[in-house]
Amino acid sequence: MSNSNIRLIIERNIPYVAGLLDDYAAVRYLAPEEITPKAVRDTDGMIIRTRTKCDAALLNKSDVKMIATATIGMDHIDLDYCRDHSIIAVNAPGCNAPAVAQYVFATILQVINRPLSTYTIGIVGVGHVGSIVERWARGLDMKVLRCDPPRQAAEGGDDWADLDSIAAEADIITFHTPLTHDTDYPTYHIAGEDFLNKLRRSPIIINSARGEIVDTAALVAARDAGKVGGLIIDCWEGEPEIDRELLRRADIATPHIAGYSAEGKIRASQVALDAITTFFMTPRVTVEAPLPPAAAKTVTIDGILGSYDPMPEVMALKAHPEDFEKIRNTYRLRHEAPEGSADYACS
């Protein structure tokens, strides 16, 4: 029998969590659009994804005390509001980093026309995801430029590149930053007109971080002017109402599923469950799947190509952009790239 003194909402598209907390709380499983101010008014805690905007408009006059987001990012949560109203917010940093790195290389391999070892890759943001991209790129004999001003300031050293160097020297530029505004190193529209005008090698641009780190209009103009040679877009400004001009110009266009691996979802769901059970002091529950290992230390081109083909989602989104959410929510979770093995085949 559930403990009706604890009232929870769980976004119903989150995998691996259904039923696990029902013995300890009164749980409602709701679609994102059903998580409204009225729904959360008598709710103590929530497990959500990025589609639920947790701000004053949603949380005012609610009983919410704990928010666990089964995502790496927290830009959909007003952290200042939560702090001022004693609401604890917890995310799952790094949970899908191996999957995003897999996406980066799988999509690059769809659009390049020469060996990877001949490319220079610029990585903007060298955290959970960027560090894996860096390690795999070096293992594939690519030249790597690292740009991460917060890490550079904290760690020092001279093995860092600034954005101007990335713009001038990189053949591929991939972004892996959080979305920030009022910080020492804001990332909102970091790939804007100023940056794009400095591009010198007509690089491939990849955004699998957050839609708003890219200025959509400026990126479309840069592609039309030949300053950008290829576009790989998984994260979009204004999701799910994505820009049709950017969609038409993108070589690879996917509905924010770069991190959608089975292993990543297992990690994220377990983090969210642990946050809820710890906060409300209920027995710990675990997903009914083995906790996956860390990202592969090295990968091969065969292993990447065998583990993930992005083209079905590309074709679906290109044909029906209005189905962005449907394609995303019905995406069949893939498995992450395996440890380097040339004879790997997708099962």
Structure description:
α4 crosses α5 and α4 packs across α12. This protein is α/β, with parallel strands linked by helices and 347 residues long. Among the domains are: 85 residues, 3-Layer(aba) Sandwich (Rossmann fold); 157 residues, NAD(P)-binding Rossmann-like Domain (Rossmann fold). 33% of the residues lie in helices and 13% in strands. The strands form two sheets. It has a six-stranded parallel β-sheet, sandwiched between helices. Strands 2-1-3-4-5 form a five-stranded parallel β-sheet.
List descriptors.
11 strands; alpha/beta; 347 residues; five-stranded parallel beta sheet; Rossmann fold; single chain; 33% helix; 14 helices
CATH fold description of the domain at 97-253: Rossmann fold
Global outline: globular
Total helices: the number is 14
Give me the strand/helix succession: EEHEHEHEHEHEHHEHEHEHEHHHH
CATH level 1 name of the domain at 97-253: Alpha Beta
Find the structural class using helix and strand composition: alpha/beta
Largest sheet: 6 strands, parallel
Per CATH, which architecture of the domain at 97-253? Answer: 3-Layer(aba) Sandwich
Quick recap of the structure?
With 347 residues, this protein is α/β, with parallel strands linked by helices.
List the helices and strands and how they pair.
Layout: E1 7-11, E2 26-30, H1 37-40, E3 45-48, H2 56-59, E4 66-69, H3 79-84, E5 88-90, H4 97-111, E6 120-124, H5 128-139, E7 143-147, H6 149-155, H7 163-169, E8 172-175, H8 193-196, E9 204-207, H9 216-224, E10 230-233, H10 244-249, E11 252-253, H11 262-280, H12 301-307, H13 311-319, H14 324-329
Parallel strand pairs: 1-2, 1-3, 3-4, 4-5, 6-7, 6-8, 8-9, 9-10, 10-11
